[in-house]
Amino acid sequence: MLEVLIDAVLDALKTLPFLFAAYLFMELLEHRRGGNPPALLQKLGPLGGAVLGCVPQCGFSVAAANLYAARFITPGTLLAVFLATSDEAVLILLSRPQALPEVAKLLGVKLLAGAAVGFLADLLLRPSARPDPHPLCEEAHCGCGEGGHGAAEAALRHTLRIFLFLLGINLFLGLAFLWAGEEALSRLLLSGSAFQPLLTGLLGFIPNCAASVLLTELYLSGALSFGSAVAGLCTGAGLGLAVLFRVNRPQKESFAFLGALYAGAVATGFLCGWVFP
User: At 109, is the secondary structure helix, strand, or coil?
Assistant: First the structure.
């Protein structure tokens, strides 16, 4: 029980620098630039999002969710970040000398999948919404626009609210894993079915590093195919999805985003199963 609590706190603490940086960036932009994003952020696009997602740190997905909720980045860029997000999976592979070749293969697949799906999403949706951080402030009741609050103070208010939200989620999921047991989840996935990527894609949605660890260990043990592991690790955007549902409006848009992420991840998994049998 104590270990679950410690893990929950540590996982939430990892996101703090990224949360604060994202909120401070948005606050400074609102105060000093009239809400217009800098050219670099506008040009980031799905390819840049996929590159950032490949960095083994799930904090980028949390920051991207906030930036998308304020419409500073496009839906395709956020999809690219989520699909390419790499957390414990890469670190586990790096810790196994015999698995080092798998790191390049996994990151390459996630980079290509994130960029391709992201560009396709932006091409189909043709996003045109202007940047607007005000809905975030209204949702958090932080009083950013009421005067008397500096950018750093407003960013800190946002950060603490989301930090507590993430801490609660991590604690709940940690207890759920403790109760259900990883062996039960493993048995659920070890069906040997060709449709296994459909199941691992659902498991990846669990916003907890335990899901990534489980998928990676099962793959290294030979229990999962590469395609099945990829499907789960592509939906495994860390705590980014939880933050997206917390801060983005309307909610139906977040559910549509969830479906697009699942479809892209599973399609990538099946494709990898064909290319890397």
Answer: helix
